[in-house]
Design brief:
The chain has about 60 residues and is α+β, with helices and mostly antiparallel strands. The chain contains one helix and four strands, in the order αββββ. It has one domain. The strands form two sheets. Strands 1-2 form a two-stranded antiparallel sheet. Strands 3-4 form a two-stranded antiparallel sheet. The longest helix is centred in the middle third of the chain and has 17 residues. The radius of gyration is 12 Å and the shape is globular.
């Protein structure tokens, strides 16, 4: 079953937002409540996804 959620995160950077979402999703996977996940973080520079590697709040990979 698929679900779409929208969060208004209290994060100051995309890195922090990615960390918060990663922790939430990893915990749900660990407890077998989630089998896969995908997210997009809206920033002024564009979208950041779970596949982006951030460094200094910039996409580096």
């Amino acid at each position: 079953m698929k679900a779409v959620l929208t969060f208004d995160l209290k994060a100051e950077t995309a890195e922090e937002a990615q960390k918060i979402l990663g922790e939430i999703c990893d915990e749900l996977c660990r407890t077998n409540r989630l089998s896969d996940y995908r997210y997009e973080i809206e920033t002024a520079e564009g979208l950041v996804t779970e596949k982006c590697v951030l460094g200094g709040d910039k996409v580096i990979a």
